[in-house]
Design brief:
Elements lengths: L1 H6 L20 H11 L1 H23 L2 H5 L25 H37 L1 H16 L2 H12 L6 E3 L2 E3 L2 H11 L3 H14 L3 H8 L4 H9 L4 H24 L11 H8 L8 H27 L9
Antiparallel strand pairs: 1-2
Helix pairs in contact: 2-14, 3-5, 3-14, 5-6, 5-8, 5-9, 5-12, 5-14, 6-9, 7-8, 10-11, 12-13, 12-14, 13-14
Length: 321
């Protein structure tokens, strides 16, 4: 009877998984990429950011720095035209060319200030969370002290004190204001505290995992445990913080420059372009409209990108309803 059932026409053939029907092996990074691509706002932000990068990159080829800094008072405060699509400023400089080179400076400040903040925040959080005890107490009290002081006050005081003390720098044939380095360091040294607390909490959790306890039992040095075993497992929030930190640094540079303590001449930035246009808000609105539009688009796209990365790097995102 059993043989008849097995050899009959109604017998169910065994299921054979071919290479095409076998379940696809998914690495964590591939799954994160799929989650990111499903995040429409993040993809849109990435495309906008790519467009701004192309605008700055192609613009740097079309315009030279001399074009951005050349002034002709006979054409001052001309509105947008075919020759000057973004108009001219109060001393007759091409606003379009200045937004290109101002964007370079704003993005340089954003990226390098973020690197300073990420380095400090990750280092303080990792040491505090891993070693604990006195090290944790001292570093966390330092972090809380920095958090208790208004960032704007620190920024204004340090910018006023250090502004103008560093000479201009020549790099690859371009002249950069010494104030750029001051702004990068000021923003970086006042933006690391929240990341330090996040990294500390992750290290407190991860250092109790079995693979870390096994590494300690095998005599693996603490430095290797921190850098090789724990830190890679804490990279998701660091990557998100790095992304969002660029936008925050650009905004910070903008309002420092707006207060007259930001990037100084001869370098242009979107922030000091807004400062130059504040006296002509009604008479020449193009002076503030185009730099502020670029700042808004850049910061919004970076924030959308950061939100997408946060969701993509969350291993439990697919389980959430």
């Amino acid at each position: 009877m059993d043989k008849a059932l097995q050899t009959g026409t109604d017998a169910v053939p065994p299921v054979v998984l071919s290479a095409k029907t076998a379940p696809e092996s998914r690495s964590p990074w591939r799954m994160a990429l799929r989650r990111f691509l499903r995040h429409r706002a993040a993809v849109t932000g990435g495309l906008i950011l790519l467009g701004i990068a192309l605008y700055i990159g192609i613009g740097s080829v079309v315009f030279s720095e001399r074009d951005a800094n050349f002034n002709d008072t006979s054409i001052r405060l001309q509105g947008p035209s075919q020759e000057y699509p973004f108009g001219t400023d109060s001393v007759g400089r091409d606003v379009l060319a200045r937004t290109v080179y101002g964007g370079q400076i704003s993005l340089i400040i954003g990226v390098f200030a973020m690197l300073v903040a990420i380095t400090l925040g990750t280092s303080v959080g990792a040491l505090s969370g891993y070693y604990g005890g006195l090290v944790d107490a001292l570093l966390m009290r330092l972090t809380e002290t920095m958090l208790s002081i208004p960032n704007l006050l620190i920024l204004l005081v340090m910018a006023k004190f250090f502004g103008g003390r560093i000479p201009n720098v020549e790099v690859a044939g371009r002249t950069f204001s010494g104030s750029i380095l001051v702004i990068i360091l000021i923003i970086g040294f006042t933006s690391w505290m929240y990341l330090a607390r996040i990294v500390r909490s992750l290290f407190l959790k991860l250092k109790e995992e079995e693979f870390i306890l096994a590494a300690r039992a095998l005599g693996v040095p603490n430095t290797r445990i921190i850098l090789v075993h724990i830190l890679p497992n804490a990279m998701a929030p660091i990557i998100v913080a790095a992304t969002l930190g660029i936008g925050a640094a650009i905004i910070t540079e903008a309002y420092i420059s707006f207060l007259g303590l930001g990037v100084g001449p001869p370098s242009a930035s979107w922030g000091n372009m807004l400062t130059g246009g504040q006296r002509f808000v009604e008479r020449a609105p193009w002076l503030w409209f185009f730099p502020s539009l670029l700042i808004i688009l850049t910061v919004l796209s970076i924030n959308f990108l950061g939100d997408g990365l946060r969701d993509a790097l969350d291993p439990h995102a697919d389980k959430k309803v």
